[in-house]
Amino acid sequence: SDDDSDAKIALAQQENCNRARSNLKSLSRGRVRYVTPDGMVIRLSEEERQQRIEEAESQIGEFCED
Questions:
Q1: Beta carbons within 8 Å of 57's beta carbon, 6+ residues apart
Q2: CA dihedral defined by 61, 14, 30, 35, rounded to 10 degrees?
Q3: Given CB 3.0 to 4.6 Å as the disulfide criterion, which of 14, 15, 37, 59 pairs with 20?
Q4: Predicted confidence (pLDDT) per residue in 5-60, tens digit
Q5: Which of 65, 51, 2, 45 is nearest to 23 (CA)?
Q6: Which helix (H) or strand (E) segment is 32 a member of?
Q7: From the centroid of its chain, how far is CA 36?
Q8: Pair 33, 42: CB distance under 8 Å
Q9: Residue 9 exposed, middle or buried by CB count within 10 Å (0-12, 13-18, 19+)
């Protein structure tokens, strides 16, 4: 049914929202070390950190209801 797919979309949006918020939180704390899924540790430059903050903020705008 359509209701089922709407619920799945809403859930995915909520997950994306939560992920973007948690990314923003860790970036805002100044965490510039990232561990990639394959276990590599990456250091972000300040420029990259600011760029990721902007990305997270735009994702929050896109996925979060409030």
A1: 24
A2: -130
A3: 59
A4: 999 999 999 999 999 999 899 898 876 787 888 999 988 899 999 999 999 999 99
A5: 51
A6: none
A7: 14
A8: yes
A9: exposed
Q: Is the pLDDT of residue 4 over 90?
A: no
**For the CA atoms of the chain, what is the radius of gyration?**
15
CA 17/CA 57 separation, integer angstroms: 10
Q: Write down the residue that tokens 């990721």 correspond to.
A: 52
Instruction: Give the position of tokens 């420029």.
Output: 47
Residue 54 has which token pair?
């902007």
CA–CA dist 40, 64 (Å, integer): 30
Alpha carbon dihedral 19, 24, 26, 29, in 10-degree steps, equals: -160
